[in-house]
Specification:
single chain, mainly beta, five-stranded mixed sheet, disordered N terminus, 2 domains, about 50% strand, five-stranded antiparallel sheet, Immunoglobulin-like
Amino acid sequence: MNLLNFNVMFKYFSLIVLAAISVVAAVFEFEAVDLGLLQQGIKKPVEIKGKNISSRTIEVESVFNQMVGGEDFSYPKRIAPKQEFKINFTLNTSYMEGAFSHNIILVDTSGTPYIAMVKGSVENPFVFSERILDLGFYKKGNKKTWTFYVWNAENKPLKLKLKPESQKEFKAEFSNVKLDVRDFENIKEGGNTPGIKVSLSVSELEPPKNTQRSIRRIVSFTCENFPNATPELLVTGYWE
């Protein structure tokens, strides 16, 4: 999903959330769920306990996560008055990072939404000295190379390589180094933290088929140590 479509979807579901606020208290009580700190790349089983506190039966059409990560939802299709129930799903943290507060939306067959909350924080196992790389003004055939460092906050050695989809436009060289990371604005070699020195260069970017001038590329890596995590950075610039 690209950023534009995600923003449109987010605004749409935000309207759903606002519409639900006035009805959720009168129909359902949901237990708040705090998952604490999670490692990026894991799939976490989540259970939300709820109760129908109204005097009417609710026929459920669907349940989904307003944000990314929710998979394999299971829930009752019919919830009687005063009935206790559970919503179960899997939270895939592969593309999540940092603190999160997710709305889990239950929609009945009349289209009315109800909200349960799940919060927590996802820790990225990778630290990049640079996460956004500036390509500047670029035309096809230009050469550009960046050098930066990657390490793990727990001092675990890393084995990185470019994902196949990123190899179409970029190439990278990796070398193991020891880093001094005490000052993030001045990362230096020669310390005690095992890390990787990365030299990333542009092979060749294909110009757009429309009049778009901005360049935005996600460069993705894989890591043997954390195979389900998503180490990646952003390359931005403009076509000349």
